Amino acid sequence: MSRELNTSEPNMGEPPRLGFCCTFIPDPDPSHKTLKAAKDAAKLMNLGTVTMAHLERLGPAARFEKLEGVVRHNLAALERQIAWVSGRPPLERLLRMASSVLPGYTHPVAQPLYAQAPMRSLIETGLSRVGERARAGEVRLSMHPGPFCIIASRNPNAQANGIAELEYHAEVMAMLGYGAGWHPHGAHVNIHIGGREPGIEGFRESLSLISESARNLLTVENDESLFGLDAVLRLGDRVPVVLDLHHHWVESRGEYIEPDDPRIRAVIASWRGVRPVSHISVSRETLLPEHDPDALPDFPALSDQGHSWRDLAAHSDLMWNRAVNALVARHLAWSDFEIEAKGKNQASVPLAARIGRDLSRAAA
DNA sequence: CGGCGTCAAGTTTTC
DNA sequence: GAAAACTTGACGCCG
User: Fold this and answer.
1) The dihedral of CA A60, A61, A66, A72: what is its sign?
2) Model pLDDT, residue A155
3) What pLDDT, in 10s, does the model give residues A253-301?
4) pLDDT tens-place string over residues A54-99
5) Whose C1' is closest to the CA of A314: which nucleotide?
């Protein structure tokens, strides 16, 4: 099947990648004598934020300074994350960036601050530098706005806010250097459909309300309840589909989809020549302490044992299930992966090490 | 300094 | 009817 996937389209020839999402967790380090030292180390590597309520309580000058300080920190932290990822083996050169780079970008309290020239130039210079660094280090980048980012809603205000939020993510991508063309360098901004109404058809109609650069970066992900893989594939002619294998397992009440499934071909086609990205996670290890790590979790059986739908949907700390990891390794033939584990890099690095070892053994 | 409540935002499901 | 689930900390206040 790898022959069939080896298309002549530009990005399909890219090597496989997998990575963690948003937050870097430093290794336990003996030089961190105290909990505080470990926290400080994490702080350096991760993005921060500021609440709009706090900003609003400050006077004009302090308000600007506070936000500028957070933005400065975030640009530097993002650059450190990307530098770290680019220093990893090629298999690990993928990162989902946190949405909080520019906190409150679409909020009325912060908006006027972002409009000021010194802030603009700080951001443009910083993001352009970060983007260059990502491309030089061959790090594939994505963003995943929160659940508030819906582009089709029955509530016109919610829809307007959601579209503004999507445009914010697209602007960040543009300032990073991913502002033109179809998912340039595999970059993307991934969202869900959102509410039951207006659903898939409302989403399709809303595509005409967003900018071309946002449309060029947009992807849509199957969710665990309302809009499963078949539903989002109905948008595949316009929007690339991000396949979340764990959501699919929950939504289908236990199906593990394999690379030779016809629906995988439809997912690949939706990306139109760009190498797809998929998501993986697994139910919490604390929920299944006795579970055989070499057996795929069985949804109907676990459900019968009294585990609720919601508990099974929650994410584990680490990629503890070797059968699920083997499934990821098979899907890496056609897709990159974002590892949605609470342990972040502490989960993705060992997973990549095991998969990388298996890949090189298979090649030998 | 630790604990707790609050903080921009939407929608659904479950207790 | 409140809380939890998706991205998660930051901040002020109280003891």
Assistant:
1) positive
2) 87
3) 999 999 999 999 999 999 999 999 999 999 988 788 888 999 999 998 8
4) 888 888 888 899 999 999 999 999 999 999 999 999 999 999 999 9
5) C5
Backbone phi and psi for residue A97, each to the nearest 5 degrees, phi listed first? -80, 150
Token duo for residue A78: 């993002």
Question: Could you tell me the two tokens for A347?
Answer: 């989960």
Type of residue found at A177: G
What positions of strand B are covered by protein, i.e. any atom < 7 Å from a CB? Answer: 1, 6-15
Question: In this complex, which residue's CA is closest to the C1' atom of nucleotide C6?
Answer: A147
Token code pair at residue A362: 């298979």
**Could you identify the residue written with the tokens 């459900």?**
A303
Structure tokens of A236? 């595949």
**CA-based max dimension of chain A:** 65
Name the residue closest to B7, CA to C1': A51
Tell me the backbone φ, ψ of residue A277, rounded to 5 degrees: -120, 140
Backbone phi, then psi, for A220, in 5-degree steps?
Answer: -130, 135
β-partners of residue A315 are A283
* Strand B–CB A111 distance below 7 A: no
